[in-house]
Amino acid sequence: MKIGIIGSENSHSLAIAKTINIEKKIKNCSVEFLWGETRKLAQAVAKEGKIPNTVKNPLEMLGKIDALIVDHRHPKYHFDAALPFIKKGIPVFIDKPLCFNSAKGEKFLRLAKQAGSPVTSFSVVPEQKKFRSFVLKKNKTGIVLAGATYGVCDVDSPYGGIFFYGIHQVDMALQAFGFNVDRVFISRNPNGATGQLIYSDNKIITLNFIKEGCSGFSIGAVGEKGGVFENITFDSDIYLNGIKTFIRMFKTRQEPKTHENLIVPIKILEALSRSLKSHKAERVG
Question: What is the pTM assigned to this prediction?
Fold first, then answer.
């Protein structure tokens, strides 16, 4: 299977290429083509990741690849990059977050479905063994009354504000506690911001977006039968489980997530962005 990557400013592009091309951890796959935001970036990533071909225009990959990875830092560029490929039915992994606008996201996913192009997107934090361990422990605490996530995030990032790193905690919260978030609220603090996901059953999950001094992610919960907390230390290969997930989709054309569940985190990030400006609770969707 020949894979193309659009985007080389994100460190994930090189990490994926190294895992597949150099470490040979994925059988019968190779990253063959790369487009970069600048020629210098593209050449550097191609050399280090042993990607044999760089292109001046991503459209040069059409007809030459079996699957596509879109890896821009700012999510506002994702759909324009992916659109010509989904129209051809090519499976696409879009690095987190899926997009910057949920309405455009829903339209894009409808087009992908019509074209028969499998699409997925996710944070790799919930792909770590420690996160899965937390979920198993959390399930033994009975009905969850409250929970919290912690991690690095600059809500004023030039790469989409809270979207850029906020997706990690939002993805963690949704996978651990469910997708039925009704409204959100966020307030700034001296070192970032504190958000709340308020569920339809009135459960509250607190998101701690820490601007400086925090290098990793953590998650906790209190249930009727006790509490649990997990520091999400990364697997020895942070990206391997995530790569296996989207490669499986490339090969089987079976999407690992429903389109609805791909859009929910985007709607939550939009609501959090609105709440930052309004200083009020905002409805999701």
Answer: 0.95
